[in-house]
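User: Predict structure, ligand magnesium ion.
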Amino acid sequence: MFLYAIIERFFPAALRDTLQIHTQKVVNLLYPYVQITFPEFSGERLKRSEAYTAIQTYLSENSSQLAKRLKAEVVKDSQNPLVLSMDDDEEVTDEFQGVKLWWAASKTASNPHAYSFSYYSPLDGKRYFKLTFHKKHRDLITVAYIKHVLEEGKEIALRNRQRKLYTNNPSSGWYGYKQSKWSHIVFEHPATFETLAMEQRKKEEIINDLVKFRNGKDYYAKIGKAWKRGYLLYGPPGTGKSTMIAAMANFMNYDVYDLELTAVKDNTELRKLLIETSSKAIIVVEDIDCSLDLTGQRNMRKERSEEEEPKDPNKKEEEESNKSSKVTLSGLLNFIDGIWSACGGERIIIFTTNFVDKLDPALIRTGRMDKHIELSYCRFEAFKVLAKNYLDVDSHHLFPRISNLLEVTNVTPADVAENLMPKCVNEDVETCLLSLIQALESEEEESDDAGLNEEKDKEEPTQQQKMKNNGHTVEDVKGNGFIHLSGK
Ligand SMILES: Nc1ncnc2c1ncn2[C@@H]1O[C@H](COP(=O)(O)OP(=O)(O)OP(=O)(O)O)[C@@H](O)[C@H]1O
Ligand SMILES: [Mg+2]
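Assistant: Predicted complex:
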């Protein structure tokens, strides 16, 4: 560079260009290194270069340990908003497949007189990263290493990002000032697979399935399938379907798109919404059976109820607004396998329902909903997880009694959890467990009564026969389960 300065200063303009070319040739001969620069802004629109950002992220993982002078930047939407990267004129080394290379952060000299459209100060020179390596490794670096850095940088940014929970806006708001199809808030659900109450074996099966999916990029490419997986979660209310979705999102480090189908006007809108989802996302349709008239049975039921019941004006309004959604079963199926496949990147789709039998088999067949997961009533193994979560106990002398009761009652994990929550500040473990036992016992009694009632119903013709015979009425006394015969 010193040579160029001398040429600039002492030689006439006519000679300068020729001299500079020859000097460069000599330098190239003596200097066996190749340099590549990555400017921060590229193109006419002064857009921040994706490569620069990825390199910065990649280097911030290593350079924050190696560089002596660091620069702190507040990065939006990151889990850790303060990111440390190497300061201007700092240099760090990196190694790739045994080859050593150097990264330097630099800044061109600023030109205070230049007029700039950039909202960055014109006094601030243009930043760039400079990569230096020996020319004999040119192929390795330009092909494999740079690709590795860019991919790794993006991966780190995704890992460190603040995850979001998106909900779809009604299409009437799409064309307004904001034009956004999805609204989002920060996703901060604390559920994890450790805190999820369910059989350990089942839990491990789901975790393994997720891990296989996450690592399956090449596999999916090889078999020619879109990198997506569908889960159907079904079970009674309060058994942990929504909790499991949160646990899955936390485990996979994915964003969640909560798709409210009743707010989607038609199949075209559904497609537009989908296209705007990002990679590494879970798309959730909760209570799929209630979202739309997607099943034959549902249509039939509705028609029947229309014939039978006089319309409540409020209900009518609600139904009318539901009717305004024209998303069809085939639209939804296309959404799952057609358009969906066109979107690159890993995506999981989850449907939840309380009534799996009501769903159209086409919607949940393997390939669309690859894995069907039943979430069921709380048994002892699941209870132990809740006891650990809520009371921090692994064992207790009341556990065997609870285990027996859980075998004969159908209570949801949500009910168990509610009973395990201390009702006042000083409530101890024993009191909480006793309150659960009490709740389970009354549930057991109720189900016994219900069982008895059912049997009574079956026997009813004989009782009625008896009644006819001797002129008595039959009365079921709820609570003790006795059948009274009382005179008229
Ligand atoms: N399996 C579970 N493990 C841990 N907590 C659970 C579990 N099931 C339910 N809970 C607790 O009960 C509450 C309700 O559970 P959740 O919302 O996940 O049920 P759901 O199956 O989605 O119900 P719904 O069908 O009504 O949507 C949760 O906030 C959680 O605290
Ligand atoms: Mg739910």
